[in-house]
Structure formats: structure tokens, C-alpha cells
């Protein structure tokens, strides 16, 4: 789960100004990045623990709370070797990235053919207050920790892109980004998950969860089973 969470963050922390070499400016632009409802990008995994797997990042909905727009950001992972049971979906309702964000407001998850589950508010609040769980703080921190290697041309299944190559000095993760791409991530390599490459992108994304989520049970503060 930690690797998947870090990968999701990597897809969200990429820069808005692709030619910016000033990291402070770049990170500020990361924090100011706006979501666009319907945007999506799909990826494939080669090598590593998820060899042959797929991932889709998408903004699948919008809500307004207390005058602030919030967006449902969905990450869907697929393992074709496991069929329907190999699909995992996580949707987070967030306002933005960076210190001005309002944190995570709601989380819905679905594993395989099991019912979709809504995380109890007590657990959502814990995500917003626990170190390493607040998405906004994680985005800002990861951006500051990564270094810019330089400009590089990259070819992936989705096409040819001029990118900025970034590297994390401690965990060895490398990311190639381009701002014309939804979520900006063109290619990523990690020690455990191999290579992730962009396969397609577009607009008009809808939620991959079509059922009404059930309330998650079995956790402190969660409602009892019905």
C-alpha cells in the first residue's frame, strides 16, 4: 500500500511549468496546480512487482463544501493476471494541493468484486492529522526532496514527449514529466515496481465505481454492521 500511495502522489506532484529549473518556483507551481474535472491518464507497468499491470488516474467528480470546490481524484490499479479480483480503486475528495488545501474530506475504496466502501470520518480525520498521511503535506515534501536532473526526450506508448527528468535522492525513484500531459507524469521507474509508462490520456472521465458505497465497518468509530 505504501508503494501505491507514493506512486499516486508522484502523479499529482509534477510541475506546471515544464521548463522551470528553479525548484522553489516549481514546487510553488505544484502547490497551485488546479484540477480539471474529467481529465484522465492511463499507464502500464513493466517489470517489478506489478509487471503487466495498469493504472488510471482521473478526476471523476466535483462538489462544493462551505464555498470551496472539492474534486474526486480516482486511482484505479489493475492486475490482469488476477482478472476482476485484481482491480483496486481508491477515490479521495480533495480541494487542492499544498498548504492552502483543505485536506482529504472523504475516501471511497473498492477491491475486486467486493462492495465499494466509504471510509469512516474518524479515519479520514486521522489521515489529515497523521504524519505521512496528509496528501497536501506529502505533495509539498516530496517536491522539495526531488532534484531536477535535466531536460530529456522520452518515447512511451502514448507518444514522444520533451520532459523534465526528476530523481528522488534517497529511494531511487525517477520521474519524467511534461505539462501537456494530464497529471504530467510520462514515465516513472522505482526499485520495486519497475517502469511505469503513459499509454493514453483524455477528458470526460467518469467514476469507475457505479454502486452506492457502503459504510466501512470494523474500525474504531465506524458504525456497527447492519
Mind explaining what this structure looks like?
- The chain is of the alpha+beta class and 226 residues long.
- It has a single domain, classed as outer membrane lipoprotein receptor (LolB), chain A.
- 18% of the residues lie in helices and 39% in strands.
- It is built from 4 helices and 12 strands.
- It has helices spanning 2-12, 23-31, 121-129, 135-145; strands at 40-46, 54-65, 68-78, 87-94, 104-111, 117-118, 147-156, 159-167, 174-177, 185-190, 194-202, 214-215.
- A 12-stranded mixed beta sheet has the order 7-8-9-10-11-1-2-3-4-5-6-12.
- Helix 2 (23-31) packs antiparallel against helix 4 (135-145).
- The model is unreliable at 13-21 and 220-226 (pLDDT under 50).
**Could you say how many structural domains there are in total?**
1
State the secondary-structure class.
alpha+beta
Biggest pleated-sheet summary: 12 strands, mixed
- The CATH class designation is Mainly Beta
Helix content, binned percent: 10-25%
> In the CATH hierarchy, what is the architecture at level 2?
Clam
